[in-house]
Amino acid sequence: xxxxxxxxxxxxALEQEIERLMEPGAEPFSLFMVDVGDxxxxxxxxxxxxxxxxxxxxxxxxxxxxxxxxxxxxxxxxIFCILLPGVHQTGHIILAAEKIIRLQSDVxxxxxxxxxxxxxxxxxxxPQDGDDSAGLIHKAGIALDSARxxxxxxxxYSPALSQSMMDQWHLKxxxxxxxxxxxxxxxxxxxFDMVSRRPCGAEALLRWSSPKHGPVSPExxxxxxxxxxxxxxLTGFVFTTALxxxxxxxxxxxxxxxxxxxxxxxxxxxxxxxxxxxxxxIWGNNERDLTVxxxxxxxxxxxxxxxxxxxxxxxxxxxxSIDDFGRxxxxxxxxxxxxxxxxxxxxxxxxxxxxxxxxxHLVEAIIWLAHRFGLTVVAEGVQxxxxxxxxTQMKCDAFQGFYFSKPxxxxxxxxxxxxxxxxxxxxx
Length: 428
Prior knowledge:
The chain is of the alpha/beta class.
């Protein structure tokens, strides 16, 4: 079975070959499911000739890897399968997988300008992982999916992987229901004004306590929602809920701002940005400023287009905050070009500045430079009185952290605001 007709899939031939190898008395074997990357993007970017040339090189390298008794076929646009009779022990499987990866790395290097994806391999073996073709193919697919998610070059199937996959499927189903039923909730962590020493706003933080799965982290919620194509719905829920709930906050004598995080994938979707602008026009009010928080990393890819999208949000009256500033992609050019209103210093700098002169001077310099460009500066992760004193000396505009309050459910946050009194320790 040669990979000669690259314009056709050959899954039926694969099943037939597996069934033949499973005949009574047959020797153990392994099925390698190889994902060679998204060549479809090459097709769109550079045309069918370039895509076909890359696929031919991939197939030739895989064919060169195969022994006379091995079988190779293509079962999808970017998926090849290799049957390896006699290869079933762990050491032999690892050697074979690493050789395939080396060969494919040569192809990637050859077409570096077009192909950037790393090869992933899912592995299932007969007889331990299945005694029929459909089951073995399915388990190799589970292993391949795990390799993609964990960014591992290759993964061998195990019962634990199958259970993990089932758990994730159930979690996805329950999350989809929770988004549709608006069963998620928002917690709010206050920001404190340096001059008045009173709350000047709060950041909305997504929370989900699943009846079946317990508390689920925001990172997992966002990741799964992205996989399922539900980020638009999730974003709409978060912004609508935050603006409606913020309208219920008790007044404490100062205009209160509302901050909501915007994921990188949502920033790329003009439809989602239009929805946010519409929600703000409907539910925003004169007593609440809305600011969207964007991480630095979200701005790196396609920065010119992202900056234009942010400028459109600014034109609609929505503030822009750069979250976790300094964490990985800081550039002085941001101060000159980005349409931001606020900058949040990453908590790692705040935590270290008491013990490190370098971090102290770095925080001081960020605040000084941000002010020169008209940006408000918020220090994240504040937990100590000494940090507040230093940040006050640096003229940081606002603070946020557990020193003042952990994130609170909406009703608790409203009660906290109503009871709020300026802590004497902050005034010292």
